[in-house]
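Reminder to self: tokens first, then the designed residues, so the page reads top to bottom the way the pipeline ran.
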């Protein structure tokens, strides 16, 4: 039975980069159609790059790069958040990378998406991928909606917003706010809160739970009606094994935003323990 959600495929390309977005895909523009190619998966089977009737996210990543490792850990969380939704995830690696290195990164980061091996770097060349990581997002008709080269600030939040926008969970205004968060000014509690939450997110990825809690609590204090803050608070508590407290945080997030995917996913995970 077909999923009721619109189709979404996401491809993420892992590359170390702080270059402008124009360098993401040198040979593909937003609005162009991405060819659906068959590739060999890490397990030896044949898989298609894209899926029909789904949002497609495809990821080029490179094991051994610290930024690729951090990004894929964040992507693993996004996979869980979109579980049950029409989002097709695919990772792409060069065939020059030793298979054991790729397998090790998959295990370390917990990604569940199929990892496709790009023979002769054909797909890299076709799209013009030079810097990694970079994430591409295409719709159900395989039309490129966005591509996002790596940035050090709010990268996973940007990808999350792009996917939610493709799923029509947020509108253009919500996407613009995620892509261009307000700059903090004296007395601007909302901007200060977002800055603290961004720092807490990075500390969570680094498993520095104490500092992560400190920053997320400051963020919530500055802006208590920000659902994302309570959801992140819950994730940090859950990572420490404090599911009872985490559930309370997730419930606070859902009271503010009933469809918040991080709170819904975190609550489901904690209730299953």
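Designed residues (273 positions):
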């Amino acid at each position: 039975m077909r999923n009721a959600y619109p189709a979404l495929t996401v491809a993420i390309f892992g590359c170390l980069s702080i270059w402008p977005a124009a360098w993401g895909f040198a040979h593909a523009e937003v609005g162009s159609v991405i060819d659906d190619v068959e590739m060999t998966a890490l397990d030896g089977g044949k898989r298609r790059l894209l899926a029909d009737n789904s949002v497609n996210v495809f990821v080029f990543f490179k094991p051994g790069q610290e930024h690729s490792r951090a990004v894929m850990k964040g992507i693993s969380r996004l996979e869980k958040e979109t579980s049950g939704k029409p989002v097709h995830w695919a990772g792409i690696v060069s065939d020059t990378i030793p298979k054991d290195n790729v397998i090790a990164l998959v295990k370390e980061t917990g990604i569940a998406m199929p990892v496709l091996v790009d023979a002769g770097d054909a797909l890299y060349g076709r799209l013009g991928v030079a810097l990694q990581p970079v994430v591409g997002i295409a719709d159900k008709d395989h039309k490129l909606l966005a591509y996002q080269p790596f940035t050090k600030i709010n990268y996973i939040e940007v990808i999350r917003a792009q996917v939610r926008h493709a799923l029509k969970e947020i509108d253009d205004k919500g996407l613009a706010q995620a892509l261009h968060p307000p700059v903090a000014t004296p007395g601007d509690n909302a901007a200060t809160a977002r800055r603290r939450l961004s720092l807490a997110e990075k500390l969570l990825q680094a498993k520095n739970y104490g500092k992560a809690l400190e920053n997320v609590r400051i963020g919530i204090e500055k802006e208590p009606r920000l659902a994302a803050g309570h959801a992140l608070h819950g994730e940090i508590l859950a990572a420490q094994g404090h599911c009872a407290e985490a559930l309370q945080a997730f419930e606070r997030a859902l009271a503010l935003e009933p469809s918040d995917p991080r709170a819904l996913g975190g609550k489901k995970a904690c209730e299953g323990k």
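The longest helix spans residues 189-205.
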